[in-house]
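Can't paste images in this forum, so I'm doing it all in text. The chain is below; anyone willing to post the predicted structure tokens underneath?
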Amino acid sequence: MTVLLNQKVNMNVEKLNSDIERFPQVHPITPDMKLTHKGVSRLVMLDRYAFKDTEKLTLSEGDFVVLTVKEDPKFPARGLGYVESINFEQKTAVVKVEDEFRGALSPEEAENGLITRSLDVIEKPLEVFYEQIAKRNATGLASVEKTEEKRKEWFEKFYQELVQLNFVPAGRVLYGAGADTDVTYFNCYVMPYVKDSREGISEHRKQVMEIMSRGGGVGTNGSTLRPRNTLARGVNGKSSGSVSWLDDIAKLTHLVEQGGSRRGAQMIMLADWHPDIVEFIISKMQNPRILRFLIENTNDEMIKKHAQDKLKFTPLTESEEAMYQGIINYKQIPGLGGFSEKIIKDAEEKLQTGGTYSVHNSEFLTGANISVCLTKDFMDAVENDGEYELRFPDVESYSKEEMANYNENWHEVGDVREWAKQGNKVRTYRTIRAKELWNLINICATYSAEPGIFFFDNANDMTNAQAYGQHVVATNPCGE
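Text version of the structure:
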């Protein structure tokens, strides 16, 4: 799993140690240090967890750097290399990329490995050995001790466990401990239920943004948000629905730059009893073929409607029709006119359908993974091929006193079944054949890997949180 540094890279250790002197958090390289890891593990260590000269105070020619080797808005690629030259006026540098990362380069760049990149996507790691990270972590973890003697004692204990890999902390600890930065030591969080108000949603969004900015992933259960088109008396209008608000929260993943270079992570969930559950599942579907399959094969009108709303059809223009017909005309000619069979088949399909299928709002909810919270009631209905009620507190009929109770307590309860048991009015928005919803979940998960499923009642039955008067609200991205 590990290799010697001098087997992988060739750097000026004396200069790097001189640069390190400007950063009291970083421990210098010593002759006994050997752990660098290899392959992806090495890249992850240097990119995500190593302490870096983020202000580029010491960056110079010959330095070993982590950088974006492939600049792509959706799928950028990171790699390692050495600075050949720097133009501080233009804020660019020429970097010679290591061989194993040249696969992501263009053919011209890959030939000699030299690429020009903005300094914004180039970072200089000051910790190139795992032992340096272990020493920084041990220093940070031991710093809470009250005496110097105790700090030294616990530094040594922590360091030995870390450097021998007997204990490997979570990524946020590796990155943050001992770094003197204001980041979290926890990888992932679960938020309380969202309070069903503009103020509640704004506060939830603010807390998610704060957690993500410090490097933490976040899990949210949006089941407390009222369904689409439900009356919002305060503004004499109707709610845009839970799914639109959850998409707004999901967008934070794209907006917030997390501590270190860790990619943002969110898990967003909705209960199987929520009236918006079908919209929630279909809204993230990116495959038009599956949407067409749902439209043609489902017996549920709501599923069909949401699939139709998501599906986008662009008719062929006259010139496109002529072009595809021209391609098909070569089908009977030897050599197919230079076209492959696949191209001819695609042309036939285009003419048969009369256009191109795609999806509306292709970026919808892409900032989060989504899962459905499954209850025992729903699974029983699936097994018995029964009907299942989609329900929510009947806010439209609540009196002033009942609405005050809703605003004060609904987000603390978060489960429509418990809310009904407490004697509060609940409205059944519609019923759905449980197997139709179950099939929808499975079809979408099979062909797009989402939604996930979270056995909500089972989790609450088995959690030790009950001993503390708590209950499970959702899972975080790490626990999906």
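DSSP finds 19 helices and 16 strands in the chain. The first strand starts at residue 64 and ends at 70.
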